[in-house]
């Protein structure tokens, strides 16, 4: 049995309420969750106070603590993990901004922010991205979901297609649309007084 199959089996046991499965699952998903956390935190300013280990643990506890969660497979788990990390990071960013009375907003070209180069991303205003992504989800939820799993989970196009039940061509089309829409939305928000 591959690790992928073992993760899926354990997730189904977690869904069935077997507490031992959550303990057995963590070692199998920890490295990938940590990689995701480091990826996100690599986008933040160097003095960011949230550490990758803390982000992984907080997200994992939120995921496993969901009594109604019905896990489908590994890809579904990492998609939801990406959403959980997004919420944690956005909440953290909001708290920091409130502490600084709204300071420190930096405009970032969305094409730079949304593309995922191998050497990491520039700092992204996660609060602004979250707001724009929420607005996109109001009228095009499937396109917003592609951004979530590509940007926040770092899933490749093939896995996104599998998770969403669409073709890879559709994923690419949704990605292009979402990039353009988010770029325009964030540009307009920056232009507002």
Automatic annotation (TrEMBL):
One Gene Ontology biological process: DNA-templated transcription initiation
Residue ranges occupied by any RNA polymerase sigma-70 ECF-like HTH domain in the UniProt entry: 5-187
Pfam family, one: Sigma70_ECF
Alphabetized UniProt keyword annotations: Sigma factor, Transcription, Transcription regulation
InterPro entries associated with the record: HTH_Sigma70_ECF-like (IPR053812), RNA_pol_sigma-70-like (IPR039425), RNA_pol_sigma-70_dom (IPR014284), RNA_pol_sigma70_ECF-like (IPR011517), RNA_pol_sigma_r2 (IPR013325), RNA_pol_sigma_r3/r4-like (IPR013324), WH-like_DNA-bd_sf (IPR036388)
An example molecular function term from Gene Ontology annotations: sigma factor activity
UniProt record similarity statement: Belongs to the sigma-70 factor family. ECF subfamily.
UniProt protein name: Sigma-70 family RNA polymerase sigma factor
Organism: Eiseniibacteriota bacterium
């Amino acid at each position: 049995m591959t690790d992928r199959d073992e993760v899926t089996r354990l997730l189904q046991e977690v869904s069935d309420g077997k507490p031992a499965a959550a303990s057995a699952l963590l070692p199998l998903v920890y490295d990938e969750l940590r990689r995701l956390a480091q990826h996100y935190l690599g986008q933040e300013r160097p003095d960011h106070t949230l550490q990758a280990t803390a982000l992984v643990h907080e997200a994992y506890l939120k995921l496993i603590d969901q009594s109604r969660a019905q896990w489908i497979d590994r890809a579904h788990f990492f998609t939801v993990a990406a959403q959980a990390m997004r919420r944690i990071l956005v909440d953290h960013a909001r708290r920091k901004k409130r502490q600084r009375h709204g300071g420190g907003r930096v405009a970032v070209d969305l094409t730079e922010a949304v593309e995922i180069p191998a050497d990491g991303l520039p700092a992204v205003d996660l609060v602004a991205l979250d707001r724009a992504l929420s607005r996109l989800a109001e009228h095009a939820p499937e396109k917003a979901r592609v951004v979530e799993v590509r940007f926040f989970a770092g899933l490749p196009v093939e896995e996104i297609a599998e998770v969403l039940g669409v073709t890879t061509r559709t994923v690419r089309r949704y990605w292009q649309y979402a990039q353009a829409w988010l770029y325009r939305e964030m540009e307009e928000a920056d232009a507002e007084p």
